[in-house]
Amino acid sequence: MTRHPALLILALWAAGLGAAAQFGKISVIYDLLVADYGTPGRVAFMVSVVGLVGLVFGTTAGIFGQRLGLRRVLLGALLLGAGLSAVQALLPPYPVMMASRTLEGASHLGIVVAGPVLIAQTAPQQHQGLAMTLWSSFFGLSFAGLAVIGPWLAAWQGVSALFLAHAGYMLAIAAVLAALLPRLAPADLPPLTLAGVIRQHGTIYRSPRIAAPAMGFFFYTILYVAVLTLLPPLLGADRALAATAMPLVSIAVSLTLGVWLLHHLSAVHLVQAGFALALGAAVAMGLFWQMPGPRLTAVLLLAAALGIVQGASFAAIPQLNAGEGERSLAAGAVAQLGNLGTTTGTPLLAALIAGYGAAGVVGFAVPLCLGGIVLHSLQARRRRG
Q1: E-only strand ranges, 214-339
Q2: CA atoms of 250 and 139, how far apart (whole Å)
Q3: Does residue 192 surpass a pLDDT of 70?
Q4: Contact (CB, 8 A) for 16 and 135
Q5: Contacts 24+ apart (CB under 8 A), 285-292
Q6: Left, alpha or beta for 178 (phi > 0: left; psi -120 to 50: alpha)?
Q7: What is the pLDDT of residues 282-318, one digit of tens each?
Q8: pLDDT at 174
């Protein structure tokens, strides 16, 4: 696809970092924005509306990516994101800010749908697992970096500086990708109608190849985000250590052990193995809850196992789908069900903890891990049959 595949893959991954920052740039200066916009609830909705757009239109974005061409979709999304961040730097009135955040949801979708498909097309076959796992790390690494840089920049130059920095970053990545991405004609497909979009949704979710990565990813997102948010406060003196170490362990294991295992197992089998390991870690965490050392070990093992699931879920997209069109649809479904998981998991786990304490975490994790294993087994049977 290009004479510089490694450079293009890194640039695409950098676009993913910018997409994750569309959430993180609000989250890391949450308290400062409350001072500007009045109440925590208003700022919380400012964060979540980007994900709600993905929840509603994720699969639709995959359909449009298939028709418009992934280069056009990605560059348009980056330029739109840069412009919206520049508008947000003005700290406009709340309705205008929310309108910009809603449009930013469309920008975010364009990046997270086009990015993994273009990476899968670019990476040599022997390095595809590494490339897709690298892509899967964009959210955690972006948040970790923003947690350090964002508050410092806002304290030094004001809240607007963070938005302007994000705008400049998105513009720079768009320029790099415009130079690196080859110009390819989009697929010659019939005009899209509302009835056609609805039929395409049915086609996507009936397909055991297109839908499988997203369905497994749903079980991952509903569990990972909720556990990362609500488990550390239950750990007493280990709270700060767990909150810092869990995402780092997850990413590190995904990029090392997870990549190595992808050379020996199919992506689907590795997703199932990761869920099985996470299930065991959750049970061990419950059994050793009164013993801080073993409990923390089990918590970190849970994070490591979910890191394996994360990378392998993205690697499953090209392994199960050979064509660009099918990969685009699969990435759209991943975006849609991933947003469904992140939206629903935390309130569900919060309710279980309120009712059952730490046992609620185990009761939450075990059926979700089993669900991921069983669903992938059923989809694999459908593919064979």
Answers
A1: none
A2: 12
A3: no
A4: yes
A5: 285/361, 285/362, 286/358, 286/359, 286/361, 286/362, 289/358, 292/235, 292/236, 292/237, 292/238
A6: alpha
A7: 999 999 999 999 999 999 999 999 999 999 998 999 9
A8: 97
